[in-house]
Amino acid sequence: TTSFGIEEALEQLGIKEVNKGTSTGKNWFSEGEEFSSYSPVDGQVIAKVTTTSKEDYEKVMESATSAFKEWRMKPAPLRGEIVRQFGDELRRLKEPLGKLVSYEMGKSYQEGLGEVQEMIDICDFAVGLSRQLHGLTMHSERPGHRMYEQYHPLGVVGIISAFNFPVAVWAWNTALAWICGDVCVWKPSEKTPLCGIACQKIAAKIMADNNLPEGISCLINGDYKVGEMMTNDKRVPLISATGSIRMGKIVAQAVAGRLGKSLLELGGNNAIIVTPDADIKMTVIGAVFGAVGTAGQRCTSTRRLIIHESMYDKVKDAVVDAYKQLRIGNPLDENNHVGPVIDKDAVKNYQHALKKVVEEGGNIIVEGGVLEGEGFESGCYVKPAIAEAKNSFEIVQHETFAPVLYMMKYSGGVENALELQNGVVQGLSSAIMTNNLREAEHFLSQAGSDCGIANVNIGTSGAEIGGAFGGEKETGGGRESGSDAWKIYMRRQTNTINYTTELPLAQGIKFDL
Ligand code: UN1
């Protein structure tokens, strides 16, 4: 891996000392136990990181809550200026950070760079937004009264992110939360802690450059037990959590138990509907990238292809053919399309899915398998596989975070395809491949896709940051990143001002003294 410049990248990111096994260098983390970050690329330990203890968590919260008092008083456009500088620093460090993402998480270097690009894009978006935190004005029913609403900062925002987007999802949350006047405490996945430390370093540098407290951006490390300190903490009015449906249900209940707000971005079970009017070439690119990109570990990954019977054999042959071209290997080597899955547990889940689909009566049309030998020592490289399956299979109903694609047929009109597509508990992303206006509009209508994201002639993954990102049903209902997703990071206040010498009551109530 040295040949791919990992050492240099760690050096540029200022986290080489972490690599040598010392802790994060942050005096917050003095007490917890150490855990290791392994690269799925070569199986090496990249770093040892200290788990945040209860005592250290208290220090983090003190630093966050006191930073909030200062930060909320800065005008929003000034907060935007800080985010602009943060985005500039990300531009400067795009390559080393993209490389670290690739090495610690296992996605291709191109996708690692793409992830940092999403961070940069959301910063730009947030900078503009910092002058547009608009509320409405209303006409009061009382004479000489003015009524309007304003948005105020919320406080400490807790962010729990997943390994698959170890840096971008944090940035979607922080860039918006920061311009909104909030401070953030982030618990990255324990599988990608070094990405978290690298980002924290960048944020801390920008805060220091501007004489701002580092507590505006805080990091805590460890597994779900560390996350629980936050979900149960009344000082954290909003928890934004990305991960499995199982995790989301636990987080949602804990946060609801104290009537806090949660923003949940959970599992997907995303399908592409291929209609008789689909462009085959586009379908193949969308489906194959969607299914094997990030080794099938995006929440927007394509899990199901729902193909019209008249197109079935053609599409199946074209996709199977495309799978033959896939090169699996070190994701830092730009000749490869598919890198490893995150760890050996992910390999087990992948194997379980392939076994289960056969047991339930499915038919494997592209064989899977774990790769062995030179270059595959980590044991995390698997072959993207395809099975013909029924939507009703238990395994098809379940999100397996691996490159396993299920193919199924539909007959008749697009409404039959939609029944299959919507016939799962998840509701994140969906797509239709068609040049038929009627089918496309039906798919987008209220009787169409029930997902938060519905695309026409685009695959299920790779959403732009400008739109609101998230999904319905057990995906959790939260929306992050673009559009008006910022509103969840603020509290709305309705203000009515009386500039007369009378005090008329609303609803015309008479109350004479
Ligand atoms: C995720 O997998 O959690 O739409 C986020 C996409 C990316 C984000 C995925 N922009 O695939």
Q: Write down the Rg.
A: 24 Å
Which outline best applies? globular
Which secondary-structure class do the elements indicate? Answer: alpha/beta
Give, in spatial order, the strands making up the sheet with the most strands. 12-13-14-11-10-16-17
Bound molecules: 2-aminohexanedioic acid
Given as residue ranges, the uncertain stretches (5+ residues, pLDDT < 50) are: 19-28
Which assembly state applies to the chains in this document?
A: single chain
User: What is the residue-averaged pLDDT?
Assistant: 95
Q: What is the count of DSSP helices, taking H or I runs of 4+ residues?
A: 16
Summarize the biggest pleated sheet: 7 strands, mixed
Distance between the termini: 83 Å
Query: How large is the share of residues in beta strands?
Result: 15-25%
Count of distinct strands: 21
Q: In percent, how helical is the residue content?
A: 25-40%
Overall description:
- GO terms for molecular function: aldehyde dehydrogenase (NAD+) activity.
- Residues 31-494 form the Aldehyde dehydrogenase domain.
- Belongs to the aldehyde dehydrogenase family.
- The strands form six sheets. Strands 12-13-14-11-10-16-17 form a seven-stranded mixed beta sheet, sandwiched between helices. The chain has a five-stranded parallel beta sheet with strand order 7-6-5-8-9, with helices on both faces.
- The chain is of the alpha/beta class.
- Helix 4 crosses helix 8, helix 5 (94-105) packs across helix 6 (109-129) and helix 5 (94-105) runs antiparallel to helix 8 (193-209).
- It has helices at residues 6-12, 16-19, 54-71, 76-92, 94-105, 109-129, 168-179, 193-209, 224-231, 245-257, 280-292, 312-324, 344-359, 394-397, 414-422, 437-444, and strands spanning 34-38, 45-50, 137-138, 145-153, 156-160, 183-187, 217-219, 238-242, 261-265, 270-274, 302-308, 363-366, 385-388, 404-410, 426-427, 429-433, 453-456, 468-469, 472-473, 480-481, 490-498.
- Helix 16 (437-444) links the parallel strand 16 and strand 17.
- The protein is 37% helix and 19% strand.
- It is globular, with a radius of gyration of 24 Å.
- It contains 16 helices and 21 strands.
- The protein binds 2-aminohexanedioic acid.
- 2-aminohexanedioic acid binds next to loops.
